[in-house]
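Supplementary material to the annual report.
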Amino acid sequence: NAGVTQTPKFQVLKTGQSMTLQCAQDMNHEYMSWYRQDPGMGLRLIHYSVGAGITDQGEVPNGYNVSRSTTEDFPLRLLSAAPSQTSVYFCASSYWRGNTGELFFGEGSRLTVL
Amino acid sequence: AQTVTQSQPEMSVQEAETVTLSCTYDTSESDYYLFWYKQPPSRQMILVIRQEAYKQQNATENRFSVNFQKAAKSFSLKISDSQLGDAAMYFCAYRTFQGAQKLVFGQGTRLTINP
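Predicted assembly:
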């Protein structure tokens, strides 16, 4: 029972490097999202998607790109990493309509940008 | 835009006692979900309890219960018979029924259980 799988769990980058955080879910959820968690600020929404080919910005989208080519996968790309992007990142998914509202989370990815 | 506020950054309680975590939210909608998520040191986000706004009855899950006051826009979590395993960060969250159904989180409350 995989649920939501995120990789990698830990990553260290240098300023200016690029990387992709991978997220996959096996629950056939339409809704997928990326959050970042910073101390004292809770979890803030970066980007979200309500289906393949449909993405939109959340609260803190700058510096991040997403795409959704399949129902299962929702990668998050950092094109030019900055120290301000040091954070813990969570991918989460759910059914979109007629559901219990619960989001299912991955285990998180800790990213450090030097 | 909806906002969620947790005014207690940290709380502590003696093992076996009861503790209440506070949460308030701001919305103009009538239908929505409210959640409490637990985040232990493992970092995993675990759903503790869920409340649908159209339900007047307060949700309960074993030792966890909520006090949902819709008019006051308040959603507190009560943990009875606190156990060492309850030590974690607790997040209150709001999810609209409308549009993209984004989930909005509060800042979190760190709960310590004293043996």
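Chain B has no helices and twelve strands.
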